[in-house]
Q: What sequence folds into this?
């Protein structure tokens, strides 16, 4: 689409704004929050044994094999004829005389199922007539189950999906190790059997538990394996801020649960006890029942089948931690919990002690990547991170009254100002690993937008963004991440819409209208989140790219833009321009 047509659309939007015909869309805002709620509750309306392969809500693993185990073949990721979702469990049994075999899904640490009254599951046979028994409990010993073995008895399957139940009422449910078991025999299945299982769940409502939201709505695609079930710290900090910006009773309750999850993650880290947080945690249950520590995401290596952690997700980047500080301070101010205040201050002290840098223009480094005990220091410095830290340290000064935070904020601001190129009219990415050389490889959108929201009086990168980053795709106006203009970056588009909206610039309305159209294209039964990009993939010019997946950060920024709530500003500036 030509740039001339793009400016015609913008001119039309300006006319509509002047006439009062373009306003924030309440229905779209409600749909966006409904999406956040659905993502937050996805793994906590029940306690799942299995929803689909790799689900962050799965609790028990098929770790016990009994009888003629060579006669059983298990595929936990069968992609066809599922009851729901993208995968189900397929079990194939080979009959040999009167042999029998069983698979048991267990959690060695045991889980408290006191709030559950039943197990339910769905099953079907490949041919019909397959006979099996499903059971739970019964593991003996002091580390075993607190309830006896409960069973369906022998059930005969049809070719259509049917739901079955095992009732728990009347039994002690404080400790469940054996969450699910399946037994088949040659006597009942002389020709063998192929059975399918799906949606194996206990009716335990756990929506009062602290937890974090998955950042992306992933698909059964190998390319998504690094994203599935990952709750990024930055994204969840934005979710806290979005809930607090709307501020209804349930919004405040949910913001409190998310903030408490950050406090628990900080206090119970499996190794570090110095105030830091990790870049990402696992969605679903926050704490590992075996260790009591927060769970980190894992992904499966295709070649070996091993489960591995990601070095970025296990690390601690200063920009992500700065956003957690901002969210915790806001939660402390609005919800009044002392734990949020302590957590924010401890996190700020860690950032000041471990990322402050005196090389070149000063500022703060990228943080750390990798695992304990010695994660690798990231000696480069980011313009965007330092803008985040400026806002975070000012928030801590506001919270504590300690002037040291003002000095720390100014140290970040000095670096940010040094990255301004007055001749070009934009900010550079930051400094390379030597801490001094300006990184000129990419001109990112966030380095232009975030300072406009966070740093009063700083040089203005928004005019450059308007001239070099605005892009048209499929009749929609947005900002690219960089100036190659290969697509729309919804997260940055929403942040820019907020910045321009606070200045009463009509471009904001054009951007918001486009985001609403993108939101509608991804709408589902549980509301509508924003895609990271409407293109199949969006390049950044850096080490990562954005996929066409519904994205928590994009959704939260969109909601903040619709609400005209600046998350990087103190209370008296949140709904005003520069």
A:
């Amino acid at each position: 689409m030509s740039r001339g047509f793009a400016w015609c659309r913008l001119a039309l939007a300006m006319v509509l704004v002047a006439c009062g015909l373009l306003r924030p869309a309440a229905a779209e805002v409600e749909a966006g929050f409904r999406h956040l709620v659905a993502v937050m509750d996805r793994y906590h309306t029940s306690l799942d044994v299995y929803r689909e392969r790799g689900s962050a809500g799965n609790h028990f693993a098929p770790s016990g094999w009994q009888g003629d185990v060579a006669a059983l073949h298990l595929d936990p990721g069968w992609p066809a004829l599922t009851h729901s979702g993208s995968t189900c469990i397929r079990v194939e049994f080979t009959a040999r005389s009167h042999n029998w075999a069983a698979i048991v899904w267990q959690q060695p640490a045991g889980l408290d199922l006191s709030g559950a009254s039943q197990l339910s599951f769905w099953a079907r046979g490949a041919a019909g007539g397959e006979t099996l028994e499903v059971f739970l409990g019964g593991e003996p010993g002091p580390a075993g189950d607190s309830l006896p073995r409960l069973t369906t008895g022998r059930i005969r399957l049809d070719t259509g999906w049917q739901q079955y139940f095992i009732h728990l009422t009347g039994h002690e449910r404080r400790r469940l190790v054996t969450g699910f078991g399946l037994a088949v025999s040659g006597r009942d299945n002389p020709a063998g059997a192929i059975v399918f299982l799906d949606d194996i769940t206990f009716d335990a409502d756990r929506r009062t538990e602290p937890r974090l939201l998955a950042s992306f709505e992933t698909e059964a695609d190998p390319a998504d394996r690094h994203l599935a079930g990952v709750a990024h710290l930055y994204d969840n900090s934005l979710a806290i801020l979005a809930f607090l910006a709307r501020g209804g009773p349930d919004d405040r309750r949910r913001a409190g649960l998310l903030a408490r999850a950050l406090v628990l993650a900080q206090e119970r880290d499996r190794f570090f006890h110095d105030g830091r947080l990790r870049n990402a945690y696992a969605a679903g249950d926050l704490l590992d029942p075996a260790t009591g520590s927060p769970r980190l995401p894992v992904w499966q290596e295709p070649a070996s089948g091993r489960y591995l952690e990601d070095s970025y997700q296990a690390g601690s980047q200063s920009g992500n931690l700065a956003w957690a500080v901002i969210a915790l301070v806001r939660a402390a101010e609005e919800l009044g919990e002392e734990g949020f205040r302590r957590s924010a201050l401890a996190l700020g002290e860690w950032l000041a002690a471990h990322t402050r840098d005196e090389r070149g223009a000063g500022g703060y480094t990228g943080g750390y990547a990798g695992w304990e005990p010695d994660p690798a220091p990231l000696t480069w410095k980011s313009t965007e991170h330092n803008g985040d830290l400026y806002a975070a340290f000012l928030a801590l000064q506001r919270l504590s009254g300690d002037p040291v935070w003002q000095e720390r904020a100014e140290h970040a601001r000095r670096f940010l100002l040094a990255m301004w190129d007055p001749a070009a009219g934009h900010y550079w990415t930051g400094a390379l690993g030597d801490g001094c050389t300006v990184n000129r490889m990419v001109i990112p959108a966030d380095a232009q937008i975030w300072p406009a929201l966070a740093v009063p009086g700083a040089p203005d990168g928004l005019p450059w963004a308007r001239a070099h980053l605005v892009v048209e795709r499929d009749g929609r106006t947005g900002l690219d991440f960089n100036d190659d203009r290969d697509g729309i970056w919804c997260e940055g588009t929403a942040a820019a819409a907020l910045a321009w909206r606070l200045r009463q610039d009509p471009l904001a309305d054009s951007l918001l209208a486009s985001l609403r159209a993108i939101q509608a294209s991804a709408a589902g039964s549980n509301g509508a989140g924003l895609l990271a990009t409407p293109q199949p993939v969006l390049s950044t010019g850096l080490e990562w790219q954005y996929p066409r997946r519904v994205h928590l950060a994009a959704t939260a920024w969109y909601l903040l833009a619709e609400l005209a709530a600046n998350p990087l500003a103190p209370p008296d500036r949140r709904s005003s321009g520069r």
Remarks:
- The two ends are 33 Å apart (CA to CA).
- The chain has 14 helices and 29 strands.
- Confidence is low (pLDDT under 50) at residues 1-23.
- The longest helix spans residues 249-267.
